[in-house]
# Entry
Amino acid sequence: MGLLEKKPEKVLKDALKVLDKKQLSLIIHGSSFPDLNEEDTAYGTYNSQGARSLMDYISGLFTSVQLGPNGKLKSCDSSPYTSTIFSGNPLFIDLKQLTTEEWDCILSNDTFYSIVQENPNKNINKTAFSYAYRRHDDALHEAYKKFLKSEVLKKRRKQFEIYKHENSSWLDKDALYQALSVEHGNDYWPLWKSETDKNLCNPKSIEQKMEYAKRIQEIEEKYVEEIDFYKFCQFVLSFQSEETKKYADKKKLKMIADRQVAFSDRDIWAYQQYFLDGWMLGCPPDYFSADGQAWGFPVMNPEFMFNKDGSLGEGGKLMKELFRKMFRENKGGVRIDHIVGLIDPWVYKAGCKPKIEEGAGRLYSSPEHEFLKKFAVITEENLNLEVEADKEQRVKNLTKAQIKAYGRLIEKIVIAAAKEEGLNKNSIVCEDLGTLTNPVAAVLKEYGLLGMRLTQFVVPEKEDHPYRCKNITEKCWAMVGTHDNKPISMWADSLVNTHEAYLHAKALVEDLFPNADNKDDIIVKLTQDAEFLAKIKLVEIFASKAENIQIFFTDYFNIKDVYNVPGTSGDVNWSLRLPNNFKELHTIDLPEILKMAIEARGSEFASKHSKLITQLNSL
# Structure
């Protein structure tokens, strides 16, 4: 049943209110948005007419949309988690709008429809990244040339000049990198032959600064059009995104941004002086990886984050500028990927594995480490030295002052940026899945930040596991999966008739059906019936005390396909989209799920809301 009918919508909202749910967010990354068939250019965008159709469809029930990172991608890497921190992804420009009179038809219909007609994934709910990257770039070049000559768009060109001036602190560097990519024939700066060009933003002396300034001027003059074109794309994207957010506001939907832990090649080049030379961010060895995860992402140098008097250093100012921009542009808030990376990151030497025996350690928790000890917040007295350095519980105690020291990036950069843009700490979504050290847990508790509870990751036989329904607290976001997981239906399919399914079934019955007369029958059904198991896993998050719920689009629309397979790359990964005919799909049975969630709260609670249960039954 559609969500726009007034009575069903009101009943569902009443049920969510009864269950104390304050926010319901749909997770869908920009490239996964649907489009109209006749406007599908092989890559999704939240700025398209198809995206507005989705907003219409979910409005009135969902309160926000959780996007993925929106940065510019490399031509050879479709992962949004290695995109730029400031520049946006030009693929999110809705080309169709550029063919309209509002934009003085700066893109021809012939060009636009040729892109649509030649889409190799036409009528398939997958992006064609390489195709879209090339064709969109050609189309935007055509639009740029006509934009400069348009008599109709004189006012917009003035807006373009204002935009360039207001965003020069990051836009000039990113555009310069684009020019240098043309100069050197590739967009990976470590391969550039000129050491000067590699370090234009990182002079070591006054003499170098003067030398590099001359080189920058030379490049800017030689590639004036390429630089201006780059800025044009950012302007158009910014303009369209603002219009989209105005539309979303009318639908009472907020956008939540996603701050990835990584930096793009473009960012590393532009801000390399703020990174800790020779060190990378990763994860220590664990059950899933004996050698740990060597992500290869640079680490912000603590010495540039804060000055000795506690004020923000140049690196700290950069990070705060980034978060202010994200909060300013996304009034639903910001999801911070791998919050551990801002509080207690695991770092390793470049060229080595992220293992203790090869010199790895926690940046702020290694007072015994030959090099890292100068950054330590704690002393050896705070450590349980019988526990290895890569284990979560190694830090055994913390003073109030130490917790504050671990949390100063959060307090003075993230929370401060949110407040300055008119938001509060509840607009910060902390991805705290996986390794959670004692300092991280202490900081999240100290500042009352909202973490995540991903029930697909529960260890069901552990009574006190934080992802079990009965242990999920109010101040968090609960979900069955994220972009890195299989849809809950595929997860359930993989468990049918296994001992693991039995363990999950037993825990679910204990938490959701404690007073049922037929517990054994329910356990058997959960163990054998994948569809029922998937449904009850959804009931679990709504029955929990969590005030905030997120649902990935594959779960909500019952799509049995995977968006991201961690550790893989290429056009196939990160390519899944919501089909253009999404309204024809069968969404989850939300009335039934909410009814069961109310009943799971106990007979007294259910009796109190018997009228609502009857209404839900009728939907």
